[in-house]
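Write out the 3D structure for:
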Amino acid sequence: MASNYRTSSDQWKKRAAKVELNETQKQEIKEAFDLFDVDGSGTIDVKELKIAMRALGFEPKKEEIKKLIAEIDKEGIGTIGFEDFFAIMSVKMSEKDEKEEILKTFKLFDDDDTGSISLNNIKRVAKELGENLTDDELQEMLDEADRDGDGEINEEEFLRMMKKTTLY
């Protein structure tokens, strides 16, 4: 049983090792953890994970919390140590930063503030970047990302496409 616990915990730690947080972010994670580690034991109750994540600006869904607890607390002890909490929150913070950067890029395409990217938006950006692509090539790019078939790319579709193309 302990080896399963280690594996999931170690996977979070490996992912967290690739993340670069600034000192303020590290301090915020520590402070959120300390808020709930009232007895100074170095652990928090798994029931408090959602509240601790909210303290850091996340709105985790019930399913996400259940999954995290199942991964980290395999032995059913009912607590999460600081190292595991730090690893989870480091990864979550980097994902949040990544999402914000992607949405900034979305807004560069969506210069007419419609909430979606049209073929004309893509043409404009391609022209600004000096890319000589045909209308058919640009339409193909749009169609690739347009999951709901409305002829435009919304934020969700853009995020999905960008995450798919980002190498990790």
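The chain has two domains: 6-93, 109-164.
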